[in-house]
Design goal:
Elements lengths: L8 H13 L2 H8 L3 H15 L4 E4 L2 E4 L1 H21 L12 E6 L2 H6 L1 H11 L3 E6 L3 H10 L4 E4 L9 E9 L1 E6 L12 H6 L1 E5 L5 H11 L5 E6 L5 H6 L5 E4 H7 L5 E4 L8 E8 L6 H15 L6 H6 L1
Helix pairs in contact: 1-2, 1-3, 1-4, 2-3
């Protein structure tokens, strides 16, 4: 490696200033350095390039042809650095065109996604939305490499040194049964009736329902799970045409209350509420687009208040 190749940017900035200003004194004032420091730097430059670079004449310090070549290259390099590493390009939601990718459960797609799309169509019409579902290990990698912008939901197994999260809200559970269920007449299901009935549960990558099951085991409460399905959207149709009970997150239950032939009930027990958060890679914490998106998600989530079963019927 040549001596010139070891030069850092500060040395080249000094050479460019001397060339542009034609004076060591003027260059020292412009760069905020002492004149001895400027002279020392010029000495290092002369050794590195094996050229006098600047010669004193009756008209001041005049550059050699080699100094003029180096100064021109230094200006191009400085311009490139200012362009590439200067202030970030402002993020303008109204004009940006890109795809935002979310990881969320089918409950999130059912309850949260329509509100998100509505806001994006108004505030960032050039943006498209994609949703994915994946196991925690894959999701952590996808957040870190940027292929997923945000994960929104309950992800207790999502872990990674480079991940960040922000809590959004907590949610409880409601029971869903056929409106003409032969044995369930009251809004509050009694514990013995709850345990004696057959149930349909959702077994998916989201851990919400698993938390309810664990709560029942901890309380040593046993029930019969007659049907297990991977998708939440199958639940209301199964319930409406059977005598099965489903225990689902509040947000899903409120939406299902609009289905014909189903009715909401208060469960006889309530486990700890489920914390819902948004997760992202710390690499993108200060990214303007990701910051804006997180703010939008937080605003939408603030409006997702839980209602009692009777409230859903009145809406």
């Amino acid at each position: 490696m040549t001596d010139a190749a070891r030069l850092d940017l500060r040395l080249l900035m000094t050479l460019e200033a001397i060339h542009r200003l034609g004076s060591l004194t003027a260059a020292s004032e412009a760069l905020g350095l002492s004149q001895p420091a400027i002279s020392h730097t010029l000495g290092r430059l002369r050794i590195a390039f094996k050229d006098d670079l600047f010669v004193r004449t009756s008209r001041g310090m005049r550059p050699t042809p080699r100094a003029s070549e180096i100064a021109a290259s230094a200006r191009r390099a400085m311009t490139l650095l200012r362009t590439e590493l200067g202030a970030a390009t402002p993020f303008t939601p109204k004009t940006v065109r890109r795809v935002f990718t979310f990881c969320m459960s089918d409950v999130g797609e059912m309850v949260f996604l329509p509100k998100l799309i509505q806001r994006l169509r108004t505030e960032s019409p050039g943006c498209d939305v994609a949703t994915v579902s994946m196991a925690p290990r894959r999701l952590a990698a996808a957040l870190e490499d940027g292929s997923v912008d945000l994960a929104v939901g309950y992800f207790p197994d999502l872990a990674g040194a480079g991940l960040a999260q922000s809590p959004l809200f907590e949610r409880g559970f409601l029971c869903l049964a056929a409106a003409k269920h032969p044995r369930l007449r009251t809004r509050q299901i009694k514990l013995d009736a709850f345990l004696s009935e057959s149930h349909v549960v959702v077994a998916s990558e989201e851990r919400t329902e698993e938390r309810f099951e664990r709560f029942l085991r901890e309380k040593r409460l046993t029930r019969r799970v007659l049907v297990s399905v991977p998708h939440m959207l199958a639940v209301p149709m199964i319930v409406a045409h059977s005598d099965l009970i489903a225990t689902v997150p509040y947000s899903a239950a409120i939406s299902f209350a609009r289905y014909p032939g189903v009715k909401l009930h208060e469960p006889p027990v309530q486990p700890p509420r489920i914390p819902v958060a948004q997760h992202w890679s710390q690499r993108f914490t200060k990214d303007p687009a990701n910051q804006w998106l997180r703010g939008l998600v937080a605003e939408i989530s603030a409006g997702l208040t839980e209602q009692r079963p009777g409230d859903a019927r009145r809406r």
